[in-house]
Please model this.
Amino acid sequence: MDRLLLWFADLVVYKLFNITEGTRLGESLDFFIYDSVKIIILLSVMIFAISVLRSFFPPEKAQQLLNGKRLFMGNFLASVLGVLSPFCSCSTVPIFIGFIESGIPLGVTFSFLITSPIVNEIALVMLFTLFGLKIAVLYLISGMIIGVVGGIIIGNLKLEREVEDYVYQIKMGEIHVEKLNWKQRLEFAWEAVHDIVNRIWIYVLIGIGIGAVIHGYAPAEVLSQYAGEDNPFAVFVAVVLGIPLYSNAVGVIPIIQALIGKGVGVGTALSFMMAVVALSLPEIIILRKVIKPKLVIIFVGIVGVSIIFTGYLFNIIL
Amino acid sequence: MFEIKILGTGCAKCVKLADYAKEAVVELGLQASLEKVTDPEEIMAYGVMQTPGLVINGMVKVSGRVPKVEEIKEFLQNVE
Model:
C-alpha cells in the first residue's frame, strides 16, 4: 500500500501539477499528499478495529474487575484496563466517583485515570503510522508504567482526605452494564471513526502541511541545535508547551515527525505528546471537580515528572 | 406518557443523544417529557459511569454511546 501511495503522490505532484522533480516545492507537496492520505486511511481502519475491541471493555467492567484488588496487582490491572476502556473526558467525574464509591483504592483509581488518557488511541495510531511499531510500542508501555507508578505513589501518600467530601456521600445505583450485540458494536466503532476523523482531520492536515514545509525548507542545523538530543532543556520545554494544548494537538504529531527528521530527539517528541494528551487544561479542570487542589497539584506533578523522565530516557537510549 | 432522561455533564454527545431522542419521539408521535440530568450525584444514582446515558421511564437503556434514532424508537416501543 505504501508504494501505491507514493506512486499516487508522485502522480499528482509531478504529472498533474507539472512540478519539476527534486524542487523544494515539489518535495513538500509530495510529502503532504502522501502523508495525509496515508494517515487518514490508517487512522480510520485502526480506530475502527480498536473501537470494536474496546466495546468489550467498558469502564463498568473495569470497575468490577478491579474490585478487591490491592496494591501493585491492582495498579497494574488498572493500567491495562485504562488502555482498553474507552471513555471521553466528560465521563471522568462519574468514573472516578464510581470507582471510589465501590471501594477501589485511590491509588488504583489513579492508575486507571492516568493511563487511560496518556495512552491515547489516536496518538498511538499516528505514532505507528509515522514512526513505526517500535516507537508506538514504547509509547504504549511507558504510558502504562507511568500509570502504575503514579498510582502507587498517590496510593502511598494516603491522600484520601484530598478527595472532595461529596464524593464519599454519593450512593450509587446498581451498576448498569449494557450487553451489546455485534451490530451495536460495529455501529459503535463506526461512530467512533466518524466522530474522531470529523473532529481531527483539519488539524491533521494543518499539522502535515506545516510538517511538509519543515520537511522541505527548515534548516536542520538550527533545529537540532535548539531542540536536539544535546539540549538538556528540550524535554522540559516540550512538556510545558504541551499542557495548554488539547487533543486537537494530534495534528502536532506530523510536525514532530518532520522535526525529528531534522534532528529533534525522539524522547522530546514523545514526552510532548504525552503532555498534550494527559495533562491538558480541560482534563485538570474536570479532575478538580472531584479532588481538592492539593491532590490536583500532586497529580500534575507526578505525571509531569514521569513524562519528563520518560522523555530523557528515550533521548538517551534511542 | 413517557419520561425520558438524558444523563450527561454536557458534552457534545449528550446534546446529540437528546436530539435523537426528540426525533424518535416526534417520529412515533408520542407524548413524552425530556429532561437533561447534569448532576453527577443523580447520574450515579442510575448506576451509570459513562455518559451519555439514556433513561426511559426510570430504566437505563444506554450508557456511554449514542444510539441511532431507530434504536431509540425500538426502546420506546418496547416500554410497558
About this structure: DSSP finds three helices and four strands in chain B. The domain at 2-78 of chain B is CATH 3.40.30.10 (Glutaredoxin).
